[in-house]
Design goal:
This protein is α+β, with helices and mostly antiparallel strands. It is built from four helices and six strands; from the N terminus they run ββααββααββ. The protein has helices at residues 17-29, 34-38, 67-79, 82-86; strands at 2-3, 7-14, 43-50, 57-64, 95-99, 102-103. The strands form two sheets. Strands 3-4-2-5 form a four-stranded antiparallel sheet. It has a two-stranded antiparallel sheet with strand order 1-6. Strand 3 (43-50) and strand 4 form a beta hairpin. The longest helix is centred in the first third of the chain and has 13 residues, at 17-29. The protein is globular, with a radius of gyration of 14 Å.
């Protein structure tokens, strides 16, 4: 088993079906989406996927230099009102999953 540096996070977003595509496109293309995330201190990579199993789920994956960098990023998103702004498009609050460092690859 390999231990990777940094912090890996998964965010599961349940969007209202009528807003899923617009929210995904915004995350993908807007300056306040993935471009903003990638510009933050410690962001190694970030990607988003639409679920093929339903019409509401968006899954985000990110790797950060440290848990502190990720926490700072989430605080910035909170302070700027991002979560409040997207809340009307969601079925429920996003689920944030913080992964342990131990992992395996095939």
């Amino acid at each position: 088993m390999a231990e990777q540096p940094g912090q890996v996070n998964i965010v599961i977003i349940k969007a209202k079906p009528e807003f899923r595509r617009a929210l995904f496109d915004s995350l993908k293309s807007d300056d306040n989406g993935i471009k903003f995330t990638r510009a933050q201190k410690g962001c190694i990579c970030a990607e988003g996927h639409l679920s093929a199993d339903d019409d509401s789920t968006i899954v985000l994956f990110g790797r950060w230099d440290s848990a502190e960098d990720y926490t700072s990023y989430i605080q910035t998103r909170t302070d700027t009102g991002y979560f409040v702004a997207v809340a009307p498009m969601l079925l429920e609050p996003p689920q944030f999953i913080h992964m342990e460092k131990e992992s395996f690859y095939f």
